[in-house]
Amino acid sequence: MTKLLLSFAALLALLSVDAVAGEKKLTGAEIKAAYTGAKTVTTRSYGTFIAVWKADGTIAGKEKQGGFPPDKGKWWVKGDTLCRKWGAWAGGIEECFGVSLNGKKVKLWRADGSDAYPNSPITLTK
To answer: What would be the CATH architecture of the domain defined by 23-125?
Structure first.
């Protein structure tokens, strides 16, 4: 009985942490709805990057201070991941991420479960 009560208490604790955090992992349909027509702002140690996610599947990006040249790319949803391929940024390689949203704060997750940008806050607005 004690084990059952402890297991139940642990489950309740986990559920309440998620509820307090407010972070929600998005499905593919939710990713598409959140990103279509949205703007993201990513703050990195070397600059602040703004990207506009257009409904036609293109992305237009610029660095706020102008230290990096603007870039264009493509984006799409594959399963429950957000995929993107910049022309030059991020090495111009195709990358796909799981997406969690907490209000306007975004976390991008790699396939191995690690946070793709742990020290780079990302906000998403429409």
So the answer is: Beta Barrel (2.40)
Measured CA to CA, the distance from residue 111 to residue 88 in angstroms comes to: 22
Distance, CA of 37 to CA of 120 (rounded, Å): 22
| Tens-place pLDDT, residues 14-51 | 333 444 469 999 999 999 999 999 999 999 999 999 99
Q: Cβ(123)–Cβ(104) under 8 Å? A: yes
Q: What predicted TM-score, i.e. pTM, was given to this entire model?
A: 0.81
Domain edges within the chain: 23-125
Please identify which residue in the block is written with the tokens 């990195």.
Answer: 44
H/E element, 121: none
